[in-house]
Amino acid sequence: MKILAIIPARSGSKGVKDKNIYPINGKPLLTYAIETAKQCPEVTDIFISTDSPVYEAIAKEAGARSLGLRPSTLSSDIAKTADVLIDLITSLQHRGYNYDLVLLLQPTSPVRKPSDITNMLQILHTNQNASGVVSVSRLIEPHPYKLKIISPEGYLLSFLDNTSSELPRQLLPPIYKLNGAVYIVKVEYLLSTGNLINSNTLPYEMEEGVNIDSIDDIELLTYFLQTHKIRL
């Protein structure tokens, strides 16, 4: 079983300048993702996908490989992560490299352990019909049952049909969200559909982490690290 770890790191972020290489404890976020992949014995190769020569240099120093900078068409705000992965996978295939699984590690979702990846691979191994396994976290608030929309006539309506916001919290069904930490997808499925997840994707539940999208997120992550609630 050959596993390709890909760390996508586009430059030009708006919420936090260069958030993919923002230093946490003196180390770029990008480096944490690469180090996690390096600590997984199951991973065959680790590649960076970036549009920045600076990011590329940081990644190579941390132990990742590179095929050069990604095309500008895959470096915009609206570029899909799946398309970035497909571009790199097909480029590697043209060079004679073939993989069974792709492991996506986003630098801005750094709260994960190598053991999480190992556990996810074991889950996927025991469910051969699955297309992949993705990390999720329990969503407590706001619960979707409590969300509302305003109708064209000005009335307050449930966002989801046939749901009630008046249910006690204990009776609300458990809801999960993608936490962005780890995606493992079968290469064959990704290349044939262009998607990362579908109805055959398995979940792997993790505790809530921190996704870096604003300065507030960085301050929250720093606080959690200082109080030892999170370790990287």
Automatic annotation (TrEMBL):
Asked if the keyword Lipid biosynthesis belongs to this entry, the reply reads no
For this protein, the record's CDD domains field holds: CMP-NeuAc_Synthase
**Superkingdom classification of source:** Bacteria
> SUPFAM superfamilies given for it?
Nucleotide-diphospho-sugar transferases
- Name of one Pfam family that matches: CTP_transf_3
MF terms in GO: nucleotidyltransferase activity
Keyword Translocase included in the entry's annotation: no
Q: Which UniProt keywords apply?
A: Nucleotidyltransferase, Transferase
Name assigned to this protein: Acylneuraminate cytidylyltransferase family protein
Q: Which organism is it from?
A: Rufibacter sediminis
